Each structure stands twice: as C-alpha cells, then as structure tokens.
Amino acid sequence: MASKILLVTGxxxxxxxxxxxxxxxxxxxYQVDIAAPARKRLQFVVHDFVDDFDTYTExxxxxxxxxxxxxxVDPADYVALVIPGGRAPEYLRNNPELQRIVKHxxxxxxxxxxxxxxPLITAAAGVLNGRRSAAYPALQPDVKAAGGEFVDGEAVVDxxxxxxxxWPDHPAWIRAFVEVLRVKAPVA
Length: 188
Hints:
Distance between the termini: 7 Å
Domain DJ-1/PfpI: 4-179
Order of helices and strands: EHEEEEEHHEHEHEEEH
Shape: globular
Number of strands: 11
Organism: Kitasatospora herbaricolor
Protein name: DJ-1/PfpI family protein
C-alpha cells in the first residue's frame, strides 16, 4: 500500500492550489486523500490577478468530492499534510477537528506543505509560533500575530514545513516539499 498524504480543504479553496499538489504527489507515488468538513462535492474557485485591480479576483472553479470528513481522519494514517489556500482557510481555521489534525502533524514532526491563505489554519491551531513561513503577502500581520516570521519567498523551508505565497510559486514549493518527503517520508 502506498504512503498516504492528507490534503485538507473546503469550499472556495483555490483550484490550482488543490489540484497541483494533489496530482503532483500522486505522480511521486503517494496516495492523496482529500478531507473537508463533510464528505460532499466541494466547489473550488479560481483566483486571478488583473491589471489595475487592487487584489485578486475570484471566479468559480472546479468541483471535486471530499474523500473524508475531518472527524473521520486519523492523522496517524498519514505521512504528510498539505494545506492549500483560497478563501477556504478563513472558515476552516475555526474547525476543532481540523485543528486536531494539524496539531498532530506538528507534534509528530511530519512534513507539512502550506500555501497562500493556508497559514491561517496553522496560526489558528497555534503551531506557527517560532516558525518561518511564507503566505499570501496580505497575511504578513497574521503570521506575525501567531508568533511566526513572515518570509516573502516562493519555497520557504522551516524544518519539515514548506510554505509558499500563492499558486505562481508551485514549481519551487512542491519541489522543496518533495525533497523533504524523500528524507522524512519516502514512498513506501
């Protein structure tokens, strides 16, 4: 049986930030399970950057079924965690089951990849304190308020945690995460 990676997300997650790691990690030989607040078909979004617009725009994206609800997840079954961005982390961060899952990965020093607004989840779980993390640049005060050091970089590696700003950073982000996985959680 392949080593398993957990990807946690929900409605309004950024489509690219879900599907790029989902497919890329499968290419590496991992089984990737998607967990959300409930087993249902999730509605993702597309964030794009438009000239002369002060922030990103949001359009409907792909839909995809969640494999598991957060309360069904035994994090001990997984070798690593992926936290995509989009708007989903704004409401997911308050979910106690998700906080339980996230804390397990940090407490057991398992690899974690987070991108864009994903650090809102790790901040709410209380695990960013003392860590270096990239995030969508507007989250700089949130990372600092959680006791972390914001780094404006495409692939920030802090131990087993790999973070990035947004989907344009995907190649460097996942390349760095795969390097961590090959050392800490190679494919079984």
